[in-house]
Amino acid sequence: MGRRFFVGGNFKMNGTQTFLKNLIDNLNAGQLDDNVEVVIAPPALYLDQCRKQVRKEIGVAAQNAFNATSGAYTGEISPEQLKDLSIEWVILGHSERREIFKESDDFVASKVAFALKSGLKVIACIGEKLDEREAGRTFEVVTRQLQSIAKVVNDWTNVVIAYEPVWAIGTGKVATPLQAQEVHEFIRKWLKENTSEATAENIRIIYGGSVNASNAAELAKQADVDGFLVGGASLKPEFVTIVNARI
Ligand code: PEP
């Protein structure tokens, strides 16, 4: 069975009720490739609005979730609360969370494990920074990030891995199709050797970092690129073109 292509839109801290309503109207009206799983990730405040407005075949993800069900965790949101709003997915380990909010590999891993145990599906982000790539440490960094998740996750069925080189996020500097393929292939091989052949074969490994309507089709041709996590371009009508990159 082939892996279903997956395209996520990470809206980050952007949008208002009106802006998101217009964006969703455009998505709802768009002709989207049926073979693609589409998930949008609005800011937490607008999850409920977006879940209600977007057509049901499109999934909705939170951009973060804490590793407890409830309690004295000011400012946090739990997987239970997301499920209460019929939110199916959560993005964890985004480089902005790792960098700006100092989330460690182990903290990200514990949130991944907790979200999965709570019944959410997880888009787990990994990727190296520019200095790490320039120092030839890309594989070492993604291995370290994967290893911490693999320590606490046995069943990867509900995980999508987003390889997002930090130097490509929001910079307009997209990885070349070969650069993306090289790391995706490495990740799949690592999963084969460290989890199981079935996990490696079935898991979706998506690419994120300055994907747009012009570069998506070439990236999508790579054997181990199973989709995209899209930031900036997901806030524009071109998101529909990215979803349809393989048509
Ligand atoms: C992201 O933040 O996940 C991302 C890929 O952003 P952009 O597409 O804007 O580089």
Automatic annotation (TrEMBL):
<comment type="pathway">
    <text>Carbohydrate biosynthesis; gluconeogenesis.</text>
</comment>
<dbReference type="InterPro" id="IPR013785">
    <property type="entry name" value="Aldolase_TIM"/>
</dbReference>
<dbReference type="GO" id="GO:0046166">
    <property type="term" value="P:glyceraldehyde-3-phosphate biosynthetic process"/>
</dbReference>
<keyword id="KW-0413">Isomerase</keyword>
<comment type="similarity">
    <text>Belongs to the triosephosphate isomerase family.</text>
</comment>
<dbReference type="InterPro" id="IPR022896">
    <property type="entry name" value="TrioseP_Isoase_bac/euk"/>
</dbReference>
<dbReference type="GO" id="GO:0019563">
    <property type="term" value="P:glycerol catabolic process"/>
</dbReference>
<dbReference type="GO" id="GO:0005829">
    <property type="term" value="C:cytosol"/>
</dbReference>
<dbReference type="InterPro" id="IPR035990">
    <property type="entry name" value="TIM_sf"/>
</dbReference>
<comment type="subunit">
    <text>Homodimer.</text>
</comment>
<dbReference type="GO" id="GO:0006096">
    <property type="term" value="P:glycolytic process"/>
</dbReference>
<keyword id="KW-0324">Glycolysis</keyword>
<comment type="pathway">
    <text>Carbohydrate degradation; glycolysis; D-glyceraldehyde 3-phosphate from glycerone phosphate: step 1/1.</text>
</comment>
<dbReference type="InterPro" id="IPR000652">
    <property type="entry name" value="Triosephosphate_isomerase"/>
</dbReference>
<dbReference type="InterPro" id="IPR020861">
    <property type="entry name" value="Triosephosphate_isomerase_AS"/>
</dbReference>
<protein>
    <recommendedName>
        <fullName>Triosephosphate isomerase</fullName>
        <ecNumber>5.3.1.1</ecNumber>
    </recommendedName>
</protein>
<keyword id="KW-0312">Gluconeogenesis</keyword>
<dbReference type="GO" id="GO:0004807">
    <property type="term" value="F:triose-phosphate isomerase activity"/>
</dbReference>
<dbReference type="GO" id="GO:0006094">
    <property type="term" value="P:gluconeogenesis"/>
</dbReference>
<dbReference type="Pfam" id="PF00121">
    <property type="entry name" value="TIM"/>
</dbReference>
